[in-house]
Amino acid sequence: MRIGILCHPTYGGSGVVASELALSLAENDHRVHLFSHDMPPRLARAPGPVEVHVAQGSPYPLFHSTPHDLAIMSRVLDLHRSEGLDVLHAHYAIPHAISALQVRSAAAEAKLDPLRVVTTLHGTDITLVGNDPSYAPLTRYAIAASDAVTAVSEDLRLRTTDNFEGVPPCGIEVIPNFVDLEEFRPGAGRSGRPSAVHVSNFRKVKRVPWLVEAFALALEQLAARGSDAELVLVGDGPQLGEARRVAHQRGLDGHVKFLGLRDALPDLLSPADAFCVASTEESFGLSALEAMACGTAVVGTRVGGLPEVVEDGVSGLLSPVEDLAGFAGHLASLLEDRGRSSAMGAAARERATALFDRRRVVEQYESLYRRLIEGRHAS
Q: What is the helix (H) or strand (E) element at residue 117, kind and residue range?
């Protein structure tokens, strides 16, 4: 199949999933083109045969910012005219689904081969951006006009149909995020002082300062029983400064490490006794899944699609979103009892293998593409 993929060039979930999907499809001998306004990090270091098209547009004094979305649309249309595409897969409703629909319309006007549009909803494109009054009507149109729509979790599917009147639940198919079990796998045994790790873009929704506060409470519990631990924070973003301030204020300078942006995530995830997710919104929890594949138990908040990924009490421990003490208690229990954390980590690896293996999920996307190409709409 000839497949085009539109995505943001980010370290976040949608950019990672789109990049990994492109690489997997290319491995399966499909002709894959990925379009973005910059090189996605996961593709920058990948040897796979994906053709990447970076379209940034030309600056012009009339524009406040370069209209790269228009440049991407033009590049997709040009490639469809010269080589042909069967499917255009947009990751994120705004702007990529709208861009894909415009290309489909332009291709029809030019009497080019039919182009099928798949839109995958990842979370904030529905819960934050798409729900904003400025974009809600356009988001509703993107969902209704796409040839097929997928959501990364059942929770996101239901929230989409609740937020956008007239969108039938059967019109959205759940295809979860996935993980490469060969890349993300358990490493050497744990040694040294117990550790927890967190990976994110440090946006407000991830609550990294809140997590630092929870770790401080957990450390107090451990110290009272003669134990010690450290928290490793990976990533960068708006709340980095506030997280550093809380760590210093709570006297954690020797217990909290700020590593910044890193690519070697399996090497950081597999040695940890726990992976922390403190989010107020989490449509799926891709970072948690990657940690689970590395054999690391998850301590998280019971929000969004995370309970679909982490089986509470088996592969991790979940607490209500505002329960700071409960979160800290869960974290302390896994940091103190390495036997328990290892058992939960093994169960986490089994769950990742059974439900979220890259090959199995990519097959679901391939099946969807074939149904569309054969003229049958997804339901």
A: strand 116-121
